[in-house]
Amino acid sequence: METKKIALVTGANRGIGFAVAKKLLKKDITVIVTSRSEKDGQQATEKLSQFGKAVYYQLDVTDEKSIAACYAFAKAEFGKLDILINNAGINYDTHQNIENADLDEVLTTFKTNTLAPLKIIQTFLPLLRNSDKARIVNVSSGSGALASQDGTTPGYSLSKLGLNGVTLAFSNQLKGEGILVNSVCPGWVRTDMGGSNADRSPEKGAETIVWTALLEDKSMTGKFFRDRKEIDW
Hints:
The chain is an alpha/beta fold and 233 residues long.
């Protein structure tokens, strides 16, 4: 079995996911770079390879067969997983509100932002259990906080609220095994979703995600972090 730490990052071909992968590689952690677009993912992996051992695997987080194939690859290649970063997310739906929300669109958003991370955690648990210090980080948003439910961006906000629920459920389920499960709000980041006016770079957005992925204190589970500080659910 591989002795170096192994991390898997979803949506790692650009933005926050790419920055997270880069920071992990710089810490001598092997990174499985995943993306829905194989072409974009391969190009990203080539760029990331200058910083450490980056390996690519195509992953559609909403496709159970794709998730199973990625698991089989990681199991055969490494035999364990130390860090799982559920970063892939979609649809900051500013064009609608809770009164007029298109429920088909909301459901599609939930499938990617909430149910996909749940399924990925379920699938990769056997490999995470082969690690001495397994860490799961769900990339959430302040929009998913209870106090932020003002009716705007309903698909995105409610799906991130759901993702925080996934974090809490798994953290309590796995606490006795020492597997830490946390949510992170990276802040408003300049990405395709965040837009060019956002006040943070992807590198800044990635900082707390990587910090959370490397936590040593086993009591630090079932928490919601921003800027390395706990925030309210």
